Amino acid sequence: MASSDIQIGMSGVLAAQRAMLVSAHNISNANTKGYTKQTASLATRLPSQTSIGSIGQGVDLVKILRQKDDYLNSRIRFVTSSLGAASTKSQQLRELETVFNELSDSSISNSLTSFFKFVNDLSQDESTSTRSVLIEKATTLTESIRAVVDELDKMKEFVEQSVESKLEEVNALAKDIVELNKEIFTLKTTGGEPNDLLDKRDMLLNELSKFMNVTARTQDNGMIDVMISGGVLVNGSNAMTLESSVDSNGKINITSYGSAKHKPTGGELSSLLEMYNTTLPAYDTKLDTFATGLIKEFNTIHSEGVGTDGGFTTVLGTNKVSSTTAILNNAGLPFAPSSGDIYVTVINTSTGEEVKTKISVDVTTDTLTTLSTAIDGIANISSAISDKKLQVTASSGYKFNFSYALDPNPGTLGSSTVSLSGVYSGSNNDTYTFKALGTGTIGTTSGLQVEVRDSGANLIATLDVGSGYTAGNTLEVANGVSVTFSAASVTTGNTLSSVVLNDSDQTNLLAALGINTFFSGSDASDIGIEKKIQEDVTLIATSIGERGNNINALRLSALQNDNSAVENTTLSDYLHQIASALGEEANNAYNSEEKYTALETSLQNRREEVSGVNVDEELVTMIRFQHAYQASAKYISTVDRLINTLLNSL
After folding, report:
1. Do the strands 224-228 and 215-218 form a parallel or antiparallel pair, or are they unpaired?
2. Where residue 47 falls among pLDDT bands split at 50, 70, 90?
3. Whose CB has fewer CB within 10 Å in the chain, the N or C terminal residue?
């Protein structure tokens, strides 16, 4: 009986002592990150059965429990993963905004505006100094474009390094989880409660969730399996090793065992992969679209103009074809040309006589060899192919150009010498035919008229050239074209035809081949200024012929406001669209980061309510068990005195 009494008292002392140790452990870890509060679970011992009924045998501390909510912990891991993705994306996009730096003086937009300002200045002042300043502004523009490309490449390198670094951390965490799995298994096998080890493992899972979305599945033996997108990262006592590589398409992949691909659905790694594989290439492509549009459109206009000499004695293209026998729309040119007509103007430098020749090109069947042969067939110029580039050379005493200028001296109507002036403003290339409607002398015969019809035989104008007309005076025809007639005789039915052009290269083939172009390169990575232009600024094609003055400069300047320059908008607006899209994307990422930060804070607060240590509560618990300890000890002391009294009485 006495032995049973003492055992009951001892059970109370031991249970209270161990419960106080649990509270002390909680208090000492109150500030330990990831610690889960533990509680002592007490249970009565099996009673002793007697003839008078069951007699209790005391208390046991049967288990030390972790105060946790598995669903809440799983939600925290998911939100941590989402926050890692949003935070990384926000950081990367803010850095990308800095790369484009649209608000700075050195931005592409400001450089473009400054460049076109001096293009416009050149239309008013064609001096060598103004031309030189334009080259400086063009150089600044091209350098600012290439600088952004370089920064995008550096960002890709940094992102790739970040992926490699974070995978090293993921692999290390996976190995640590495996080691804890083994320790937990061993401890559970021997009947222990691995509460602190479980806390450490949960902490590792939380760390892992920052990098990618993970789910954990607990085995019966206490180990866990960790699943990620594309497979199992940890399988009990084994862990995969993840690595990254860039494939032939320039995309970075996360693989295991050299082949199996894993695409994280959350965490920092998912945003890094999105940045490398999607976002940066997208903005790189947009920048290429802008640069290619600028090169193509500016060069297309420039190639149809001339510098101060009014023409060329020789021109060598700067862009090679892949093969001289490759069809032109698949010959590796910077941009694909179209089928259409090219007009070549050959000028006799002694007499000023001009001859325009039309070359019809079908880019689906013609090759560079075909084109060269056609040009070579024009009188007083020759053509050849040098290093897969087109070269055109004028005969001695001649020069040539590809201008859309009117032929100032198209010939005679009867005996009257006809001169054309102005700039044709029609929407399509055309041929104007002048026809005398009577017989007589221009400027003398009463009622004498000349009609003008287009290539479709539509009447364009009827000109009075009789007694009311002073020979040599200018008469307006239509669409910016004017004409003068000398005093001479004409006969009914006399005709004269002259080509009027608004586009002397409908194919854009001259720009594609690099004939008389301003910009070099094909996209944002290699855009530059043609070397010949830099060496001789008089080659900047500001006019459309010796009589054209600043017409081509005005046309180049107007490109700034051309709504079809790139992607159905202006060059400037396209840049603004890039900046606006980037700003909106960065703002959305920042808002997402804020949302997940607030959600994570809320969930962590809820976790603290469930699993966190409240020191005041633990002190109350310690006092409660202290009193229980003292009471049990008092009980043992009392039983001891009773036993001694009983023994002494015997």
Report:
1. antiparallel
2. confident
3. C
